[in-house]
Every structure is written in structure tokens, then in C-alpha cells.
């Protein structure tokens, strides 16, 4: 029997659309797209521990956890309950969340890209920095503080960039606060604003690296695809805002860097990861972060020969060797 490819995602996810379409076009397997946030109305989960039965019923078909060969964790969301009583809504949301997380646990015989627990651990930037430093990556000088203002009062703000510890989709009306939701250059004005805040939040600063180019290294199983990004505006801090105006091309990276990347993936038990690096004018490669659920379809649009959509399709069809 052909194993099911389970894609855990949300209603609007163009990357999942592309990979699922490629799997169908190449006849690589049967795909079930599952939106956990719709479990309240459009899905049903049946669990019976006596005979280890877990059955998931979607609007399209019914299948058992034991039938799943691979799982792609592509940014699924938990259900949101709308009720007149806030406490009741919160209770129901937590119960549905426990059900969904329990469901993930029943898929322990499938190959994951990657499992939710490992991805949560790997998404923590503090943990990333410590592990990356321990593995020998070059990591920019980092300052994270909350109330110890003497630490940041003695730095030159223009030498640093500021970024969020936990990237958020929230919208802030205050323009200064909005700046802290993005990766931007730090400044004296932002420093003064932060110092004068009555209620301070953790602030994450890193030493600015004068970049020659950026690297986006996508890892799927044991396969590593490195793409160099040359921006026309070399002063741009975050090239995601101007990726359409930047040149992308495949590039080679050293075996040493590949070994460190795979060691990082193994440490966090990941079969997928999107790494961001900066290469300075001395050709030193600096680790910025790893996004365990990072986008990759845009790379294929810029560099067709990268073949990441095909690569993910083949991994989900169990045609390629996993790392963990």
C-alpha cells in the first residue's frame, strides 16, 4: 500500500500548493492536506487506545495514522474559538490544541520535515546562537538585555542592528515599536526611545557586519542547496524587503560549513532548515539564523536550477535519504 503524504499547513500557503502540485504531476504519492485550525468544523479525529486506532476524517477522505509515511509541518495554525464567554473559548482552544498535538504524537512512525517539538526548540534564537557558537560558526557579537541599561548605554548604536527575538505578525501603531518587529539598523533615536520606556521588553542587538553578499542555505534531509544573494543596495539590512531587485545564483560552500550545518540540524533533530549567512569583505561567513520552517519557493522563482520544490516533493515521497 502506498503511504500517505500528510501536509500540515493553513488555508493560504502557496509553497504547499506548489509542492503538492509537483507531487501530483509526477505521480509521487497520495497527498492529504490537513488544516488543524479547521478541525472544529471541517475535520474529525477518532482515537481508540485499545487497538491503537487513530483515524482522521477530512472533507476528502478518511485515513489512519499508521497509513502516513511522511509529514510536512508547513506552518499549521491551532483552532480559534469564538464564544461569548472568553473563559469558555480559551478552554475549548486549549482542548483542541491538546488534541492536535496529541495527533502529531501518533504519527511517530512517519518521517517528519520536521516535527513540531524539534522546530519549537530550533526556533529559539538564544538557543540557536549558543548551539551555533558551540559548533564553530562565526556568530556576530550579540547583546540581549531587558533592564540592565548600562550594557547598551555604552555602545555605539550605529554599530548594531536590532531584530525581534520572536518574529511576530502583530501590527503596531507606534512607529518606533513597529521598528522593533523588523530587522533594521539600530540608532541613537531608537536607543533613547527604548531607554525612556516605562515598561521595557527584551531587546536583541547584533553587531553589524559589512556584507559582500548573503547566503541562503536550504537543507532538506542530507541535501544542501546554497544560493548567493547580491543586493544592488549593499547597505540594506534585510534583503527580504528588496529580494526582487537582488541577484540570486547557485554557489558552492565549503565542506567545513556543510558539516557544521548538518551538525546543527542533527542537534535539533531537523530534516529541514533555511539558514541565513552574511559573507563579509574578507570572505568570512557569519551565521545569522536558521528558520526551521523557512520559505523556499521564492528561491526556485529566482534560480530555477535550485530545484527545491522538486527536492521537497521527492523527500516527502521517501525518494531521498533523510538526515534524522
List the helices and strands and how they pair.
Blueprint: E1 4-8, H1 14-26, E2 30-34, E3 44-48, E4 53-57, E5 62-64, E6 68-73, H2 86-106, E7 111-113, H3 116-123, H4 125-134, E8 142-145, H5 150-153, E9 160-163, H6 175-179, E10 184-185, H7 188-195, E11 203-207, E12 211-220, E13 223-231, E14 246-250, H8 255-267, E15 272-280, E16 285-291, H9 297-302, H10 308-316
Parallel strand pairs: 1-2, 1-6, 6-7
Antiparallel strand pairs: 3-4, 4-5, 8-11, 9-10, 9-11, 12-13, 12-15, 13-14, 15-16
Helix pairs in contact: 1-10
Write up this protein:
The two termini are 24 Å apart. Strand 12 and strand 13 form a beta hairpin. This protein has helices spanning 14-26, 86-106, 116-123, 125-134, 150-153, 175-179, 188-195, 255-267, 297-302, 308-316, and strands at 4-8, 30-34, 44-48, 53-57, 62-64, 68-73, 111-113, 142-145, 160-163, 184-185, 203-207, 211-220, 223-231, 246-250, 272-280, 285-291. 30% of the residues lie in helices and 27% in strands. It has 3 domains: 4-113, Rossmann fold (3-Layer(aba) Sandwich); 120-138 and 210-316, ATP-grasp fold, B domain (D-amino Acid Aminotransferase, Chain A, domain 1); 142-207. The strands form 4 sheets. It has a 5-stranded antiparallel beta sheet with strand order 14-13-12-15-16. Strands 2-1-6-7 form a 4-stranded parallel beta sheet, covered by helices on one side. The protein has a 4-stranded antiparallel beta sheet with strand order 8-11-9-10, with no helix packed on it. The protein has 324 residues and is of the alpha+beta class. The longest helix is centred in the N-terminal third of the chain and has 21 residues, at 86-106. The chain is built from 10 helices and 16 strands.
Amino acid at each position: 500500500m502506498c503511504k500517505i503524504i500528510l501536509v500540515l499547513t493553513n488555508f493560504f500557503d502557496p509553497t504547499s500548493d506548489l509542492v503538492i502540485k509537483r507531487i501530483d504531476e509526477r505521480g509521487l504519492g497520495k497527498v492529504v492536506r490537513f488544516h488543524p485550525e479547521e478541525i472544529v468544523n471541517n475535520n474529525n479525529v477518532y482515537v481508540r487506545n485499545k487497538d491503537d486506532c487513530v483515524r482522521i476524517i477530512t472533507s476528502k477522505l478518511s485515513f489512519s495514522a499508521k497509513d502516513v509515511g511522511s509529514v510536512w509541518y508547513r506552518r499549521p495554525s491551532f483552532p480559534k474559538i469564538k464564544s461569548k464567554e472568553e473563559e469558555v473559548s480559551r478552554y475549548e482552544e486549549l482542548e483542541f490544541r491538546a488534541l492536535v498535538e496529541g495527533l502529531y504524537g501518533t504519527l511517530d512512525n512517519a518521517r517528519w520535515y520536521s516535527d513540531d517539538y524539534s522546530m519549537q526548540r530550533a526556533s529559539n534564537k538564544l538557543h540557536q546562537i549558543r548551539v551555533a557558537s558551540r559548533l564553530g560558526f562565526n556568530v556576530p557579537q550579540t547583546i540581549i538585555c531587558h533592564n540592565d541599561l548600562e550594557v547598551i548605554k555604552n555602545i555605539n548604536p550605529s554599530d548594531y542592528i536590532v531584530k525581534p527575538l520572536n518574529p511576530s505578525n502583530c501590527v503596531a501603531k507606534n512607529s518606533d515599536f513597529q521598528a522593533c518587529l523588523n530587522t533594521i539598523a539600530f540608532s541613537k533615536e531608537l536607543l533613547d526611545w527604548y531607554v525612556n520606556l516605562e515598561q521595557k521588553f527584551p531587546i536583541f542587538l547584533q553587531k553589524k557586519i559589512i556584507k559582500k553578499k548573503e547566503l541562503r542555505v536550504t537543507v532538506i534531509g542530507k541535501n544542501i542547496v546554497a544560493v548567493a544573494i547580491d543586493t544592488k543596495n549593499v547597505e540594506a539590512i534585510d534583503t527580504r524587503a528588496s529580494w526582487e531587485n537582488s541577484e540570486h545564483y547557485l554557489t558552492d560552500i565549503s565542506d567545513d560549513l556543510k558539516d557544521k550545518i548538518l551538525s546543527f540540524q542533527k542537534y535539533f533533530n531537523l530534516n529541514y532548515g533555511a539558514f541565513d549567512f552574511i559573507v563579509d569583505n574578507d570572505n568570512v561567513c557569519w551565521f545569522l539564523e536558521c528558520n526551521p520552517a523557512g520559505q523556499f519557493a521564492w528561491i526556485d522563482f529566482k534560480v530555477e536550477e535550485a530545484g527545491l520544490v522538486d527536492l521537497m516533493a521527492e523527500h516527502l515521497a521517501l525518494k531521498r535519504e533523510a538526515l534524522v
